[in-house]
Fold this sequence. Notes:
The protein has eight helices and five strands. The protein has 200 residues and is of the alpha/beta class. It folds into two domains: 2-104, CATH 3.40.50.2060; 112-186, no CATH class. The strands form two sheets. Strands 1-2-3 form a three-stranded parallel β-sheet, with helices on one face. A two-stranded antiparallel sheet has the order 4-5. Helix 4 (54-65) runs parallel beside helix 5 (84-93) and helix 7 packs across helix 8.
Amino acid sequence: DTIQTISTVLSQTEILQKDVFLVERLAAVQASANANDSESLAHMRAICVVRPTETNVRLLKKFYLARPQKYRSYSLVFSNAVRDAQLQDLADADQYSQVDLVLEAFMDYVAVDRDHFRVALAQDQAASLTNPLADVTLVTHAVDRCVEGVASLMLSLKKRPVIRYTRTSATASKVANGLHTLMYDEERQLFDFPSSRSAT
C-alpha cells in the first residue's frame, strides 16, 4: 500500500535522485530471509515506510531489528498512527540500538487528484462492501481499512470532520460509526486541533 502512495508523489527517477538505491517490500525480505539470502548492507541506512499493522511490526522485528548490521541504521516511518504497544514491541526488539528515528507521516491513502482520494483496498475487500452475502470477517477488515484511511487523511489535513452518511447504507453506517469512535472516543486527543474548525 505504501508503494502506491509514494508513487503518486515521487517517480522512480525522483526517488533515485534522492539517493535511494534499493526499494524492497517486506514480503520480499521475508522470502529472501527464508531462503537464507540475507546480504549485509551495513554501509546503507534503511528507511522503512510501512502501515502500522501487526504483520508489518512483526516483520520489522524479525527480519531487521533482531539481526545485527543488516543495515547501518533504521528510520521507521509509519503511514498512520502507531499504537504505544507496537512502539514498545519495536523498542524491545531493537537489541542493537539500530533505530534512529520513528515518525508518523499520515499518508495511509492514495491521492487521486487535488480533490479526491481513495483508500487502498484489496479487490475482495472492496467487493465485500457492496455484497450483502459477503463474509463478515472480510467486511469488518474492509470497514476497518476505510476507517484507517479516512482517519489518516483527516490527520494529514489536521481536521476532525463532522460525519454524515446515508442512513440506508449499512456499510456507510459502519464506517461512520468506526470513524466517530476513533476520532471522538479512542483517539480524541490525536484529533484535537484547537486552531482549526471541523471539516465539513
